Protein: Cobalamin biosynthesis protein CobD
Amino acid sequence: MHVFIAPLALILERWQGYPPRLLAQIGHPVMWIGKLLSWLESRLWKEEQSPEQRRVRGMVTMVLVLGTTLIVTLMVRNIVHRIPLGWVLEILLTTPFLAQKELGRAVQAVADALLTSLEAGREAVSQIVGRDPQQLDTAGVSRAAVETLAESASDGVVAPWFWLVLLGLPGIALYKAINTADSMIGHKNERYADFGWAAARLDDLVNLVPARLTAVLVTIACFFVPGASPSKAWQAATRDAMKHRSPNSGWPEATFAGALGFSLGGPRSYDGEVVDLPIMGEGETKLGPYHITRALTLYRMTLNVLLSVSALLALSIALG
Structure:
């Protein structure tokens, strides 16, 4: 049934997003997962622990988070499947784990802010990136927005959809739990290098196929976007993706860069530490609001391609 729910969930979330009133009243499922992670970290992470102890406790944290997520979602799914028109409720329950509308809105906000001032652009981009924005010029802010758009197209949209199609509501919820844990504790710094090891490795694993699928979807979308090059998109993906320190992030970033003739990557600062990442793609480096808008056009067409694939998959199963 979840194969048929997937395209409807994509349509609903892209149109409606997560209602602000609901967010204010009860929060968001990802926030609930984050609170559970924070609570477990406060009790399991200790300053005096050895690296081995932290790694084991990090694994325990992931087992508890994923176990809780699995139990809750299996219970909810079983209840939903026993009530009339329960599939409608299941669609509503899956949409919060997709991020099509919010991602587009947040990146568009960066482009709009840059038209006002560089400082406004830095403030807007700080809402969607982990790097230090105060050292970024207009080109740096624009590259950060495009890079986030590309990477989040994979782990915020394609990957959740992929696990929804495979495993239904439990699958998409488990994916978001892993992805949330990676963003919170999967850092390679002194505090989390060992405690967040399991979260980071699991995130690499569950994004392995979706990241490469995103590159394929973006390449197909290029055929329908004026000025985008499908051949250069795929060439950049296969040439540059594996240069990235992440086994997955390079695929969507390199594909977007090649498609649009941008040059992404390079040095960036996180909490005062400069990380020198490889260059993705070839071409324009002095990006601005216009280039963000072009990337958003490609992103939206990629969403159209994903929806088409999802609908065709459901149709083929229905007819098969």
